[in-house]
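tmp note - Gfo/Idh/MocA family oxidoreductase
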Amino acid sequence: MKEKSTSRRDFLKKSLIGAAAFTIVPRFVLGKGYLAPSDHLTKGIIGVGSMGRGHFNYAGTKTVAICDVDSRHLAIAQKTLGGGVKESRDFRELIQNSEVDIVHIATPPHWHGLMAVEAARSGKDIWCEKPMTRTIGEGKKVKEAVAQHGNIFRLNTWFRFDANFYGMNVPVKKIKKVVDTGMLGWPLKVTISKHTGFDWKFYWVGKENLPVEQVPNELDYEMWLGPAPYKPYSTHRVHTTFRGYWDYDGGGLGDMGQHYLDPVQYFLGKDNESPIKIEVDAPQQHSDAVGTWRKIVYTYADGCQIILDGAGTEEGKAYIEGPDGKLFRGFVSDIPDLERKLAQYPDPSPQMTDFVEAVRTRQKFALNEENGYYSCTLVNLGLAALRLNRTLNFDSQKQEFLNDEAANRLIHQPMRGPWTI
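out:
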């Protein structure tokens, strides 16, 4: 017994020494996808305009590389970071940099899918701006690439797990708790409108007949366009106003849609499901410039609906309405003693909301490539109906439109050579 006890002590002692040594093993010794516990996570940020610079200061990470096609953005970023950060104008250099653990994608949406797939193939973890992708087909490719290569993916909208949710003025988990209790009944209708606290930002509209202008020296416009169709340069087409053009985004719906719709998908329990019908009421859209719309209605197979009210005609409507009760802006309800009744029910299941911890432990983040794909598809379904200006029927299982060749062409839109995904 004494010999066995001594052997066990020796074993534990050697194990602890080994564990201590492990904490200082350099990252490259461990190989792709493995991180020494003492290491600081490093990140490279693609797109360091105003949005990208917001990615600098996330706790637990250090920016070691930046990329932008505009030299002014790079200069501002270097000054903000204090200099000494590796910079490039080609995102592929950043993705292939062995010093980078996490790739942050803060470009216009027409680049998101392509860059995310390349980062996944290179073994990087990914933090991507919303919307996840500009098309449904690109979203499928991202989902497949992350599944194949085992990356940790985060989409940069946080309302399903953090902060008060716009006009509701409570966290989404409290709204989900109400839905989960069944007190509102089923099916539910959710109205997203200025009257329920959501601004559709119709200032993100494009301009028709843009003037052709000289490309500024600091901008690599060819690389800015990348996979998008070639269009002559105009100041309004790039940087802060790109959202107004179909080639790069989808106006206010493209900008805010995933912020507004992802939490709805979550509390309705639709993280693996798409609506089967999309109806639109809008003026005919221009082929290049995004316009406004009056209403978009999504209907699920079980009768649940999401109504996007762009014209502001849904005044007085509840945010959530069911056959047994309503929930209005500011978390006001027609259900007597809602708060007291709610306290008797369990809270929703906890979520992994620390991205650094998710990367270190290889746990799926709360808003990831899978549920993020479905909420981004909600946005892209609405944009497809808007561009075609007609009702679309969608197969939720096959993820394709029914009997509509033109709509299905919008799922997999061609990329300008040499870019492919």
